[in-house]
Amino acid sequence: MIPPMTKRLIVNADDLGINPQRTHGIFLCFEEGIVRSASVLPNFSDSNQAAKHARERGLSCGLHFNITEGAALCKQADIETLLTPDGFFHARNIVQRLLDEEKIDPMHIEREARAQMEWMFDHYGAPSHLDSHHNVHIHPFVIPRLLPILDRFGIGLVRITREYFETPWEVEPEQLKYVAEVSKKAEEAFALYSAHGIRTTDHFRGLLLAKNASLKNLRHILSRLPEGTTELMVHPGSPTSTGDDFELDPQRQTELRMLTDDTIPELLKTQKIELASFADIL
């Protein structure tokens, strides 16, 4: 158990393995910055290599469960309601609608989740926790399909994206609406996971920092970090000339710079914040 009056921070970098540039940026933030945890995508171009390097370098990793981008690990015939006719996952907005309307076969979710978890054990080892690409693991239709997988593989921690809304920076209305919707769904997911003995961190930050990453805003979060364990979700990356808008966004490099800034360790010391990983709270 964590002693009272302790501030513990898990800086978790998402999308490890999605491509070499993002993988490189995440490892830089681990080796030269404050990242202590990452979430591995199992079905992308750099996934196998990233998982191998994470294991070798001692980077604590969770599984970034994914049914919203790229190719599946299962055969198309086994999970056809998750896939387009050309064999790729539906886009995130379509997946959301299909889940809301319960038009995806629950068995298909469970099969792909099991395949991704088995991939994680084969290429990295036991994951410290589970989260997901585009937060699908907090959808009420998905949770009952993940619970047997978590139980079977002994995974007792998940991310719960309940965001804290008091920030000094201006947030666009569209982003604010999205974060409010995710946080509401996360609160409901917390009750479902907790009822099955699945734990999470005391606090979560990161949804409002997305699109608003800067050293100033990171320092604001750290200077007001609450007692207990907080996860800070980040998406750093090295420069790339290919990929979607998210990959090409200069925010990936902004996050890399702020997470490796040499003034941050002193701020952590001043604020008595202990860096940790999900493995430290197992």
Concise structural overview:
The protein has 282 residues and is of the alpha/beta class. It contains ten helices and seven strands.
| Residue share in β-strands | 5-15%
Number of continuous helical runs: 10
Structural class: alpha/beta
| CA gyration radius, whole angstroms | 18 Å
- Mean pLDDT over the residues: 96
Q: Major beta sheet, specifics?
A: 7 strands, parallel
Unreliable residue stretches: none
Order of helices and strands: EHEHEHHEHHEHEHHHE
What share of the residues lie within helices? 40-55%
Shape: globular
Using DSSP, what is the number of strands?
A: 7
**Distance separating the two termini:** 9 Å
Assembly type: single chain
Topology overview:
Layout: E1 7-16, H1 20-32, E2 37-40, H2 47-57, E3 60-65, H3 92-100, H4 106-123, E4 130-132, H5 143-153, H6 173-195, E5 203-205, H7 215-223, E6 228-234, H8 245-248, H9 251-259, H10 264-270, E7 273-276
Parallel strand pairs: 1-2, 1-6, 1-7, 2-3, 3-4, 5-6
